[in-house]
Amino acid sequence: MDKLKGSVTKNELKKIQTEQEKVNLILVEIGYQESKKHSLLHELADANTIINKTKKDLEDKYGSVTIDLTSGDWIKVEKKENG
Asked: Which residues, at least 6 apart from 63, have a Cβ–Cβ distance to it below 8 Å?
């Protein structure tokens, strides 16, 4: 008859516990990184909102232009007409 109950050795138990502890630490780190990612995505959305407002303000002032982000020089953009 087969055994229905038993125990692993102390060394085997320690190995399993160590491996599971590593998995748990990795899962905690993944959770932290996902939380950080979520926060950064909100910051990105806010930054894009600000950029779009600045673009609109500049377009109202200068018209449709391309701005060199190094020098601040701008060049008028010719809008293509449909047809």
From this structure: 76
Q: Which residue has the tokens 């959770």?
A: 31
Residues 61/76, Cβ–Cβ less than 8 Å:
no
Separation CA 45–CA 51 (nearest Å): 10
**Nearest Cα to 75, choosing from 62, 63, 65?**
65
pLDDT tens digit sequence for 11-57: 999 999 999 999 999 999 999 999 999 999 999 999 999 999 999 99
Distance CA 5, CA 75 (A): 81
